[in-house]
Design a protein that fits this description.
The chain has 155 residues and is α+β, with helices and mostly antiparallel strands. It has a single domain, classed as Gcn5-related N-acetyltransferase (GNAT) (Aminopeptidase). It has helices at 14-27, 38-46, 97-111, 126-133; strands spanning 4-8, 53-59, 62-74, 78-88, 117-119. A five-stranded mixed β-sheet has the order 1-2-3-4-5, sandwiched between helices. Helix 1 (14-27) crosses helix 2 (38-46). The longest helix is centred in the C-terminal third of the chain and has 15 residues, at 97-111. The radius of gyration is 16 Å and the shape is globular.
Length: 155
Amino acid sequence: MDKLIIRKAERTDMPAVLRLIKELAHYEKCEDQVRMTEDRLVSDGFGISPAFHCLLACREEEVLGFCLSWYRYSTWRGRLLYVEDLYIREAFRRQGIGRKLLEAVMEQAREEGISHVHLQVLDWNEPAIRFYRKYNPEFDQGWINVLIPLEKAVS
């Protein structure tokens, strides 16, 4: 079996990342909500002020999974690294790939002096919840996620 490599994504990886985003949306039963394009990923992730960072898990040229993260700021804790998506293709799960990706992101955060990695998990996604429990997380039941679609917002 070829060696697993965790590496930073490049512009040319965005078609593979978009495919994985769509696979994740399908898994989460939300594929009709994906509005992302390859061009948008490239412009948002590789411009003057990148909006996200992306790590890939690869064997040779095959992308097996990705972890997309970005910085956020907490007035209580300072800088946090937010994991937007951590996804491993179904055929490659339970091989330690997700662990290696998440630990690479956590190491990046430590190197930058960040004290917490923040993420969300769907309450029905038991495999993901079990996976994250290995890291002694703080599950926060008291907050409600709010997303305000600007095209519908009234002022």
